[in-house]
Amino acid sequence: MQNTVYIMGIFSRSALNKKPNDSTRLIITTFLGIVFGFLIGVSFPSLSVSKLNFASGLLPTIDLSYMGENKLGISTHSVSNSSSNSTTSSSAKLNDTSKIWIPSNPRGAERLPPGIIVAESDFNLRRLWGKPSEDLTNIPKYLVTFTVGYNQRHNIDACVKKFSANFTILLFHYDGRVSEWDQFEWSRQAIHVSARKQTKWWYAKRFLHPYIVASYDYIFIWDEDLGVEHFNAEEYIKLVKKHGLELSQPGLEPNKGLTWQMTKRRGDQEVHKTTTEKPGWCTDPHVPPCAAFVEIMAPVFSRDAWRCVWYMIQPAHEKIGVVDSQWIVHQRVPSLGNQVEQEHHFYYFISVSERCRKEWTMFQNRVASAENEYFKKLGTMRSNSTAH
Ligand SMILES: *[C@@H]1O[C@H](CO)[C@@H](O)[C@H](O)[C@H]1NC(C)=O
Ligand SMILES: *[C@@H]1O[C@H](CO)[C@@H](O)[C@H](O)[C@H]1NC(C)=O
Ligand SMILES: *[C@@H]1O[C@H](CO)[C@@H](O)[C@H](O)[C@H]1NC(C)=O
Ligand SMILES: *[C@@H]1O[C@H](CO)[C@@H](O)[C@H](O)[C@H]1NC(C)=O
Ligand SMILES: *[C@@H]1O[C@H](CO)[C@@H](O)[C@H](O)[C@H]1NC(C)=O
């Protein structure tokens, strides 16, 4: 019942904010107010809707006269702010402890009863008709995203076919061409996000918020130029689960301009988590680039790992690995670079790599100063408490 009462609060408050000439909405709002008021009256004999006040330019105010014990936690203060004297006096009867305030609710939603809060979502498409509970015949447990341009459509088509119906397909379009993808049957079931000339991580930060992707066990955030002939997503998921990998990537075919030993596919095992690099590259065999390391072209995150990474913290080292028995080829097709006007091309490549270096430095500085700040604070707290 608390929910119903609060909903009414929202309706009537929004009605108060309406200008009187917004008559259609006002009528609907008023009607809803009456319906809710009626429901409360019916189902809560100890509360009576004693007055529906249509004074002051048809603004409905709903007056809950309190008649029982003050234990319901109903917030009528927000409902009953009007020039009407009777409303004010009746709300004054309610004690402050009757206001909903739940600090553990998400920030900004503290005044909502917990039962009404839906903090998470997904990308499942719904019908516009029928029962909501029957909308979904198949609820995908995994999410795969590709950052794509239309020119790579055939490769993406091949990639998507390696992912079963257990995967939601989400395409980030950096070239603004979206509707043309409907030539592929699967495209109509896919989610398309279009924003021109942005990088994969720009989309990921904005459209893969941990609360939005919370229903997916694993999230693939992949480039468009991967060769997936030797890759099967269901098999991959099985291996990642079996070996407890929170952050992983498929092994990379070694004959294609490989830079890191760690991500190179090994023929003799399912998964590896460490490697040896060229002498002098790794000060510690348990840290990157000799372990705990995947590249950004084809990472696969567990739900928890993505939550961490979205906030820019790395997951535990021993849960990072490369899946050898499902592997891919990095075809290295220059893609986003082609989006630049020809006359800027040369400068573009110089300035993009400059920008990359700059952003990497900025990121390292951010991590360092955030850690510094944290430990400094911790230090003063410790010294304060030892001083006492
Ligand atoms: C309540 O009404 C008074 C005037 O009647 C107004 O000053 C005040 O801002 C209102 N409060 C809210 C929360 O709307
Ligand atoms: C509220 O009622 C009091 C007397 O009970 C009156 O003096 C006052 O003017 C009224 N206020 C409004 C806004 O009607
Ligand atoms: C609120 O309730 C407490 C005890 O439940 C009581 O002591 C106090 O006077 C009440 N305040 C108002 C404004 O009714
Ligand atoms: C989807 O996942 C379920 C449960 O893990 C599995 O039984 C089923 O085989 C998967 N579907 C496909 C097409 O692999
Ligand atoms: C510790 O002491 C410093 C300086 O006296 C003060 O600014 C800071 O707020 C204190 N921290 C805590 C947690 O008490």
Roughly what fraction of the amino acids lie in strands? 15-25%
CATH C-level category of the largest domain: Alpha Beta
Count of alpha and pi helical runs? 9
- Average pLDDT rating: 76
Q: In terms of topology, how is this protein built?
A:
Blueprint: H1 2-17, H2 23-43, E1 47-53, H3 55-58, E2 61-66, H4 85-92, E3 142-148, H5 153-160, E4 167-173, E5 191-194, H6 200-207, E6 218-222, E7 226-227, H7 233-242, E8 247-252, E9 271-272, E10 300-302, H8 303-310, E11 320-330, H9 345-387
Parallel strand pairs: 3-4, 3-6, 4-5, 8-11
Antiparallel strand pairs: 1-2, 6-10, 7-11, 8-10, 9-11
Helix pairs in contact: 1-2
Name the features.
single chain; 388 residues; alpha/beta; Spore Coat Polysaccharide Biosynthesis Protein SpsA, Chain A; nine-stranded mixed β-sheet; 9 helices; 11 strands; binds 2-acetamido-2-deoxy-beta-D-glucopyranose
Concise synopsis of the structure shown:
With 388 residues, the chain is an alpha/beta fold.
Tell me what you see in this structure.
The chain has 388 residues and is α/β, with parallel strands linked by helices. Helices cover 32% and strands 15% of the residues. It has 9 helices and 11 strands. The protein is globular and about 70 Å long. The two termini are 49 Å apart. The N terminus is likely disordered. Bound molecules: 2-acetamido-2-deoxy-beta-D-glucopyranose (5 copies). The site of one 2-acetamido-2-deoxy-beta-D-glucopyranose has 2 residues, from loops. Keywords: Membrane, Transmembrane, Transmembrane helix. This is Storage protein. It comes from Linum tenue.
